[in-house]
TrEMBL record:
One of its GO terms (molecular function) is citrate synthase activity. Pfam families: Citrate_synt. Keywords: Transferase, Tricarboxylic acid cycle. Belongs to the citrate synthase family. This is Citrate synthase. InterPro entries: 2-MeCitrate/Citrate_synth_II (IPR011278), Citrate_synth-like_lrg_a-sub (IPR016142), Citrate_synth-like_sm_a-sub (IPR016143), Citrate_synthase (IPR002020), Citrate_synthase_AS (IPR019810), Citrate_synthase_bac-typ (IPR024176), Citrate_synthase_sf (IPR036969). It catalyses: oxaloacetate + acetyl-CoA + H2O = citrate + CoA + H(+). The keyword Transferase applies. Pathway: Carbohydrate metabolism; tricarboxylic acid cycle; isocitrate from oxaloacetate: step 1/2. The active site is at H265, D317. GO terms for cellular component: mitochondrial matrix. The lineage of its organism: Eukaryota, Sar, Alveolata, Ciliophora, Intramacronucleata. It comes from Euplotes crassus. One of its GO terms (biological process) is carbohydrate metabolic process. The keyword Transferase applies.
């Protein structure tokens, strides 16, 4: 009698699989998103990014004194050691800056490896502080041959420092640009078991080192189905001169069943609560010197058509795209800025995974050939 194989339930893409407990964030309860119990709107409107970073690492919002000490620590951690500067300069000008981010995480792990003293909290702060400076050091080195100083303004927040280093014009950064960056960093900080955070946890679950977890996560974030969608979205939006052109292209894409980047979400099926917040800043930026009301209007037309035709909402990446563009960020720097922010969430996930570790290793439903007889090399036919 033929033996019946038990039928396995396959969860492709791990859709709906609850893979572990977590106390870091709640995603998709109603339209909600909370970091450690605090609603994203309250955090985005009432905090600087450092408070959120502190919350994700230490589970509580900081007091004023704790925040002051924390900000001082971050400022101290912006410096780029000479060996790292050498490596940054070697990353070719035409590389994608996500290559640079991955390289920085990996190389820093060789000169400042994880030890009992250089522990997971110390490394989290170091990476959150240094990623922005490294990115803009590389940018200016290749753009104009300048080796910029990255840690001159000790009282800068991470957001202000990013805008300062981007512009590098000796002027005080514009307040609206800084506020937009601040809010964006808060919105991008954490999102439960998203692909990159989960990958960081998979790496941590083998008892690997902290830098390896972050490096794995950077590689995962880069793809256009995840963090790379902000770059893909602006490339899509920017090609249109008019709203009508965008509309016609959308209908063509529907016929070809093509994805519209910056729309849809694995968890949020009724809208991403972060989208309207960043959309508000994108709109405010249209009124600034380098504002692009045309891009904003085209984006809104795309949003409206996606809603009326596909019942599909924008995710955080869609309006982040026009916001970042109006901030003057080079297009391929969009996802690296996401890295600067999401390092906080990845760190929280690695720390949590380690605190109650279980090796992450799912099983597959094998659908390959039945067992076959082995043939030695010389006896195999050529077909
Ligand atoms: C910060 C972030 O990472 S947010 C996500 C950023 N990524 C993007 O914006 C990329 C575009 N979006 C997508 O590819 C998807 O919506 C994802 C990857 C985000 C979510 O994917 P899933 O949860 O697997 O959604 P799923 O694929 O089941 O979508 C259901 C249907 O909607 C379609 N669909 C989903 N997203 C889109 C989109 N952006 N444009 C057009 N159609 C879409 C799918 O093709 C599918 O159609 P089908 O039923 O005919 O096959
Ligand atoms: O949760 C996800 O799948 C993707 C996302 O929005 C994020 O990582 O911010």
């Amino acid at each position: 009698m033929e033996s019946q194989k038990p039928k396995k339930v396959v969860a492709r893409g791990l859709i709906g699989v609850i893979a572990d407990d977590s106390e870091i964030s709640t995603v998709g309860i109603g339209k909600g998103l909370n970091y450690r119990g605090y609603n994203i709107e309250d955090l985005a409107h009432g905090c600087i990014f450092e408070e959120v970073l502190y919350l994700l690492l230490f589970k509580e919002l900081p007091t004023r004194d704790q925040l002051k000490d924390f900000q001082e620590k971050i400022a101290e951690n912006r410096y780029i050691p000479a060996k790292l500067a050498e490596v940054i300069e070697l990353v070719p000008k035409d590389s994608h800056p996500m290559d640079l981010m991955r390289t920085v995480a990996s190389f820093l792990g060789t000169i400042e490896p994880e030890t009992e003293e250089n522990d997971q909290f110390t490394i989290s702060i170091r990476l959150s502080a240094i990623f922005g400076p490294c990115l803009f050091y590389w940018y200016h080195f290749h753009k104009s041959g300048k080796r910029i100083e990255v840690d001159t303004h000790k009282s800068d927040t991470i957001a202000k420092n990013i805008v300062r280093l981007l512009k590098n014009d000796g002027k005080e950064p514009d307040e609206l640009l800084v506020k937009t960056m601040e809010v964006s960093l808060i919105l991008y900080a954490e999102h439960d078991f998203n692909a990159s955070a989960y990958n960081a946890r998979v790496t941590a679950s083998t008892l690997s080192d902290f830098y390896s977890g972050i490096t794995s996560a950077i590689g995962t974030l880069r793809g256009p189905l995840h963090g790379g969608a902000n770059e893909a979205a602006i490339r899509f939006i920017k090609q249109f001169k008019t709203k009508e052109e965008a509309e016609a292209k959308l209908y063509e894409m529907y016929k070809e069943k093509k994805l519209v980047m910056g729309f849809g979400h694995r968890i949020y099926k009724n809208g991403d609560p972060r989208s309207d917040i960043i959309k508000g800043y994108s709109k405010k930026l249209t009124e600034t010197e380098h504002g692009r009301p045309d891009l904003f209007e085209i984006s809104e037309r795309i949003e409206n058509i996606m809603m009326s035709e596909k019942k599909m909402h924008p995710n955080l990446d869609f309006y982040s795209a026009s916001a970042y563009y109006q901030l003057g960020l080079p297009v391929d720097f969009f996802t690296p800025i996401f890295v600067v922010s999401r390092t906080s969430g990845w760190a929280a996930h690695i720390i949590e995974q380690r605190s109650k570790n279980k090796l992450i290793r799912p099983a597959s439903n094998y659908i390959g050939p039945e067992p076959k007889e082995f043939t030695v090399l010389d006896m195999r036919s050529k077909i």
